[in-house]
Write a structure and sequence with these properties.
Largest sheet of chain A: 22 strands, antiparallel, barrel
Number of strands of chain B: 8
Radius of gyration of chain A: 34 Å
Order of helices and strands of chain B: HHHEHHHEEHHHHEHHEHHEEEHHHHHHH
Distance between the termini of chain B: 100 Å
Structural class of chain B: mainly alpha
Number of helices of chain B: 21
Oligomer: heterodimer
Number of strands of chain A: 65
Helix content of chain B: 40-55%
Strand content of chain B: under 5%
Shape of chain B: globular
Structural class of chain A: mainly beta
Chain lengths: 1145, 502
Amino acid sequence: MNFFLHDRIDLYKIMKVTLSQLAIALAISGVSYANSSKAQNVVLQQHLNLSEKNTTLKSVLKKVSDITSVKFVYSKEVINADQLVSVDAQNETLEELLNDVLTRHNIHYEVVNNDIVLDMQTNSAAVNNAVQEITVSGVVKNNAGETLPGVTVTVKGTTNGTNTNIDGKYVLKVADANSTLVFTFIGYARLEVPLNGKTSLDVILTDDVKQINEVVVTALGIKRSSRELGYATQQIAAKDLTQSKPTNLATGLSGKVAGLQIIQANNQIDAGDQVRVVLRGNRSFAGNNQALLVLDGVVAPLSYLNSINPNDVESVNVLKGANAAALYGSEASNGVLIVTTKHGVKDVKEITYTNTTSLNQLAYFPKMQTQFGGGSGQDINGFPQYTPFENQNFGDRFDGSIRPIGRVLPDGSIQMVPYANLSDEKKKFFNTGVDEQNDLSFSTGSATGSTYFNIQRLNNKGYVPGDNANRTAVRVNGNQSYNKFKLDYTFDYTQRNIDKSNAQVYNTIINTPAEIPLSQYSDINSTYGNLNNYYNDYGLNPYFQLQQQRNNERRDDLLGSLSLGYDVAPWLNLTAKGGINTSNRNGKNITEAIAYSDFAHDSGKAIANPQTSPAGTTDYQLFNSRMEGSFLATFKKKISDFSTNLILGTQVIQQSSRNFQANTGFLVIPDFYNINYRSGDANITETELKQRRFGVFGDLTVGYKTWLFLHASGRNDWDSRLAPENRSFFYPSVDLSWVFTDAIPGLKDNKILNYGKLRGGISKVSAVQFDPYSLQATFDVGSGFPYGSTAGYSVGNTVYAPDLKPEETVSKEIGLELGFLNNRISLETSAYWETTKNQEILNGINISSATGFTNAIINTGSGENHGIEVGLKGSPILHQGGGFTWNLAVNYSYNQNKALSLYQGLPNLSIGNDNYIVQGQPYPVLMGQGFKTDGQGHTVVNATTGYPVLNSTNLLFGQTTPKNILGVTTSFSYHHFTLAGTAEYRSGSVVYNGAGSTMDFSGISYGSATNGRERFVYPNSVIETSPGVFVPNTNITTNSGGIDYWAGSTTRYGVMQNYVTSAAFIKIRELSLGYDVPAEYLKRIKFIKRANFALVGRNLFMFRPKSNYYTDPEFNNTLDNAQGSNGLNQTPPTRIYGFTASFTL
Amino acid sequence: MKNQLILFCTAAVFLLGSCTKSYLDINTNPNKPTDVTPGLVLTNALNGTAKSTTGSTDFYQFSSAWIGYWDYSGAVAAFAEERSYQFTTNYGPAVNIWNNLYNNLEDYDYVEKQGLALNNPFYIAVAKTMKAYDFQNLVDVFGNIPYSQALKSTSAIRPAYDKDQAVYEDLAKKLDTAATLFKGLVGKVASADGAYDIMYQGDASKWGKFANTLKLRLLLHQSEITGRNTYINGEIAKINANGMGFIGAGDGGSVNPGYSNSANKQNPFWANFGYSPVGKSAPVDNHRYYIASSYAISFYQNNNDPRLGYFFTTINDGAGTTYSGSPFGPTAGSADNPQFKSAIGTGLLKGADMAQPLLTDFESLFLQAEAAQRSYITTDARSLYESAVQQSFTYLGAGTASDYLKASNPVSNWDQASDKLTLIMTQKWAAMNGINDIESWSDYRRLNIPADIPISNNPAATTRKVPVRMLYPQSEYNYNPDNVLAQGTISQFTSRIFWDVN
């Protein structure tokens, strides 16, 4: 299913809809207050018969419960449930019964949400006391009406607190009847309710619209109230991440954070690692622009997003700017994703089992022609000719006649098929992939510590036949307090095994002529499917390719951290931390030997010449490790209205990697893949990198009352990669947060605008991204050397600058945060301006090879980047008690950058994949071959051939990163059902669809049949009659409308312009329907506390501009800054349908 | 309490390690050396020249078809640029020649600079000679090129272009200097230095001949320029003055670092156009893509030239009994597939371990014959000519040429040829097939010999002329734009090299 969209989507309209929704939300905001007296009556007016003598109160209540289904809630510390009572009720109402039994024993009762909460009747003398101990009880629910277990309930300003039980109920002794209760639960807004003497308090926690008073996990795991922060953050709770049960955390984040762009570049079975994560666009020309991933305080590579079990995640907090750089070091200059995994909850023992099974199917094939079959030649009259063994599609028109395919076989036979389009064959080749994930987690907690343990197994069966992968992960998190010490630890081990084909079968399949019955060749030993007899003269049977080129890889990732904190005094904490992550990839690529029969070889079958090719193998090992140690001293002091928080620390980081690879293409024994059994030399490469960094930093926050916070930081780094004289560098930052709704008395306690904050900041970050050893020129082993005992070395192609410096980014940021209607609607906006100078050109700036070198590793040039972010969240419809609720979040970001200068006035710099940094342009931009125009948009054609004339220099097509990103996440709840979805829109960039080029060359492309393979007048063309003089071309047709045009490198397939389209898209990334099994149903199955089920779909719909009939524009050749270029090496996106079930014991 | 604090701080210090100054001094490259002896660079540079010039695909991809030697098979749908003479600034062979030769030149530049620093005239002289070899090829393909500002790394990041004639003249001077240095080095090259020389093993007298022959080639390229004889004769006088002479029979310059029949170790021409290490059953793609042209097959057949079976195989890569070539121009069909056409023969593909000739003795003899015929030198033109043809036969393993030279045929017989220069140049064309097709293209451009080479009739060949040059690579327009744009609009049909005056 493909919906096309006009090139430009009217964003204005989208914004308008959002504003009107906001208005609706304001209008209906009164709905959520329930009428409790009516509920009380219904419960108490039930009639019942009960007669007991001298029975315990406990058993009387139980009997009442059994008869009426009313539950009693009380604290054993408050109510003596073992006291003996008597009752004799004949057709009495429950009210009469309770009045009779309970009041006699001085027990007060109150109906709370159909349950009856008991506490001790206070005597009249005590009521007069100013300080009065009372017992408060109640139920905590969410706005979908579900009870919430595990909610922390505390008395404000004390350590007195408890958690809600499995039914969401709590009972708490409170020393002061006028104190305030605080309800906190991850993913929900913190709620404070003054008791005012009430002993029964039911509350509804609303979704964490914005953590206005929420605790936010900032750098180094430091928890801060969001009001203190002078920079932009966005926290995503577990339930929002996992609503569609992604197996990859990166997928779960897409579309949910303003300013965050996540690119899934490929979807092969092991491509989950291949994500690009960029916050606020590109700053660096050639250096890293990706966010830093911090998992439980340990810096981990972004590929780790695919190793984290999304179900383990408690929250992800996104620091969008460079403000955390002082604490993490310059790696954090592109923003940080702080992933916090779950910890055990005090006094709750839980075992959760989750199964997620999803199916994925290739979707969105490129558009293909269905009219012409195999052929590449022309008859003497110039008409296209059918060739039975051809892999190009320039034969004559399908006519349904029975024709031979392939060559005559040794027995004289030949395969015959109808000459007609069989487009389904291509889809049939691919399987439905299956991902099955089983998770078992256990969590527990006590007053002094907690433990969370998770084991996970993911089995993937790929959509490419024979591709399999699995992932096994074990995670242990915990903490333990001992006197003034606190130990935190996390340990995570992930092993993955991948068995996949290395062959580019997608390319083969797509370009196969449409009359070929591909699926008939699935048996590679069959008459027509075997190597010698396969129809194609130039290519292998793709079913054979799958087994002929294979990759087996095992990846082991280990991540651990240990942190020991020591509270020296109430105002001073010392913490020492150590973290390590290592990854190891061990793999082997094999290529099977091929030997064709003499018959196949002698028949002239092109691919059978060479008749034999030996087997090959590549063994590789990649090891990466990062170790980090830090020591922190945290001082906290409150002096009258001023609060101060100072962190002083040091940090040392060591990173190393080793890459070892051995390869041969000449194994001697055909099916024995050991590199020792080869002929000739093996190719061996070995690379080792090591770097160390040392940093000293300070971070100070000064708060005035609750509404003004000044934060400043500074850090000095020493980096082993730079020369001693450039090694040390300092970078500061300062930001300010002003909660004006608290500061300005007139705005206080406003019912509509309950929260408003203005913030602003400026920071500078100096970052070194150069590889180690980038200061000195080197010599390479000469190509082919050693020849026996003869060695030869070559001057390397790279020029190095010995005085490399860090890249320097200065960011300025302002922001406004508003909360309306007790935070039911929140708005957060940011604007930022960044300039980056001394750009690090990591792979070297390209220079004319006439200099003797091809690139120079230098600091050069500067660029600017700016943009805005808007995040709007709200619950337009909110109904208490399980009614209809609608939540909506909209994230929009606009980003624009510009290259200000390049080295010595060089006009542009290539960063690969036809991406360039061009002075005065956004970066990067796509440039490549295109046609000459008359300056008015008409293409100049050659007056003789009718073919378009190539422009002598490359054309600039546009930027490759989106200017606009809009994400919408919404959910609808009704009783126990929740329907949720996420959509994302990106626009403002272009993409080069390499698939189009390959498909034009093969003649399978849709475009190549649009003129019926007839000569045609090139649309919108002119002829240059003399230099600068153009006349419209109305009658000069192209020399050819067939193979010579479409497979012509200067007319079609070699000219990039033909395949550049808008990269805009709208994707419905996630849709899910969840069902939480109501507690009353689970009562019968005693051991299950909670259960929920969900149907999930991901990537179900994609809308693209009509001109892009190739593939998902998000897919890309690489993950680096060079985006907007793909081909047939990336299979198209898959649609994913899944089912998930979760049980908590 | 106090003990706890001490313990804690000790642990913290332990975690951070000892951050002494040397802790950060770990930036020494363990992967690549930063300093090597110039001899090792020379070894690679000579092999690099072989791989980038006469042993490369680039020296044959377009020129072999344009001057009538080879054609493209129907086994692959490619070579549209070559068949149509239409190409762009991204055309692969031109881009490669430019990049590879400048890259190779940088190695020689290092050898020359180190030679100066170490006061080793052998390295200086070899480097100068080989720089002239590379620069001459660049001029012959591109005309004006960066020269005086080239190879200066970031100190001239956008090197200006020099006039092609000025480059040629400076190369002649370089070669004079080199020959003079070689003269002084005869018998004196240290064996340690000679061991790095995979062309002449430190034989300075052969190097002197190589330098002089290269200079003769430069001068002869300019022979058709009106009024250039005075300059040429003056330069010949300098060659005569050094007395080292020209390359004679058996002195040809060819490179062999120790080629062998295993992956990446094969002779580059063999690796590009021959067979994979597996052997005859596994020809490389190019062996199937480049087949004989019908023009060349006819030439050797019509003249009963015994070299036919050495330049080309019989059809089906030697399995057949007849020879057959394809006509240049039309898009190839399946009839042009290797099983029906002759492939590159065993005289050129002698073995994976063969040395790669950079300047053959027969080319030198043809050059001398031409020079004698033009009266630049006084040696007998006929004997030089006949020796040249004989050495071509010898190179191919085709035995004696005496019958061929005596046959009653004005195409080979000195006495019967009406125009001796045409005879020399036609036989030079016949000998250079698959040896150095760029040089044959240069000869064709300056003399239009052979005059009847087929011009492409491919429908896309809108200009039916053999191009006179390559376009500058796109990288120059990207990274050195002001200088390359100063060369004006370049047309492959009209922007001639300075010596191409006919």
